[in-house]
Amino acid sequence: MTTIGSSDLDVSRLCLGGNVFGWTIDEDASFEVLDAYVAAGGNFIDTADSYFWRKPGNSGGESETIIGNWMAARGNRDDVVIATKVSSLPSKPGLSAANIAEAAEDCLRRLRTDYLDLWYVHTVDDTVPFEETLGALDHAVTSGRVRYAGVSNYCGWRIGRAATWQQAGPGRAPIVANQVRYSLVDRGIEREVVPACTELGVGIFPWSPLGGGVLTGKYRGGIPSDSRAATGHRPDLVAGDSAAGVVEAVATAAEGLATSPVAVALAWLRDRPGVSAPILGARTLGQLTGALASETLELPREILAALDDVSAPPVGYPEDVH
Predict the structure, then answer these.
(1) Cα–Cα distance between 64 and 60 in angstroms, integer?
(2) What span, in angstroms and rounded, lies between the C-alpha atoms of 16 and 38?
(3) 27, 47, 112, 283: which could join 68 in a potential S-S bond, CB 3.0 to 4.6 Å?
(4) Is 242 in contact with 184 (CB distance < 8 Å)?
């Protein structure tokens, strides 16, 4: 277990992402994955009001609805930590105070609960003053509908501004989490985001921890026709020479440790500075089982050093100036 940033929320070291619920798997299959995750000791579930409006026939909120139905069926709301996000949707564009207030009620209704443990602002919206957006989060917390506030996809200066703004005024809800893209093939946040978050007590929650599936090794022999890369998802990671070297290093480490590349990649990420819990979406029980193997995996120092070296991002200015 770990604690989310400066909060008192104790969560599993691997968060179950709900982005596939209602998108690539239906409610019955989602229930199976949720049941297996909890049975294995997991308690932290992530979703968003936008999951998954891009699927034809969906309007957004399907994932929240499925999770709400599951909690109602199992009677376990108080046993799990629920994180969701407020997004700028086609039906309600912009992160204004009015839209955020309405979104809070919609999220609670779909999740069939009267409180959210962690509520993120899903994206940056520069059309609305940031003070208005953060003030709406304050209201959600002080009203009792939300326990803690977070942000998502904030770069270094944005998380620095948001966190210090919240710390500067009495009664403002602290920013305890920043959900960002991070993996062995995508370490860009280490330049500015990680230092800012660790200094300000903001927990880091990596999404796409397997680099869009690249770190599983399934693209080593080409692009499978049924894969997301076949439809244009993150082709830069699949085709890039630097990614290929990282994938081979992960596969070699996994073979030497008699485990899977998935477990190696997640164990490396789990133990990075500032990281609270990687977020993994599992479409099948097999995928979930493979991910959960990382929970008990401790990577030897030599393997950590090798993975750090092969995946190291360019440093650049100002870090290379002494």
Answers:
(1) 9
(2) 10
(3) 112
(4) no
Q: Which of 51, 120, 148, 182 is catalytic?
A: 51
Cα within 13 Å of Cα(154), Cβ side: 29
Measured between alpha carbons, how far is 128 from 267 in angstroms, rounded to an integer? 38
Q: Say what the pLDDT of residue 60 is.
A: 78
Sign of CA dihedral 56, 59, 61, 66: negative
Nearest to 106 by CA among 53, 37, 179, 160: 53
Per this entry, what is the length of the chain? 322
154 catalytic? Reply is no
pTM flag (> 0.90)? yes
The owner of tokens 């026939």 is 57
203 contacts 177 by C-beta, under 8 angstroms = yes
**Closest Cα partner for 84 from 136, 25, 19?**
19
- pLDDT (tens digit per residue) in 6-45: 999 999 999 999 999 999 999 999 999 999 999 999 999 9
Average pLDDT over residues 305-313: 96
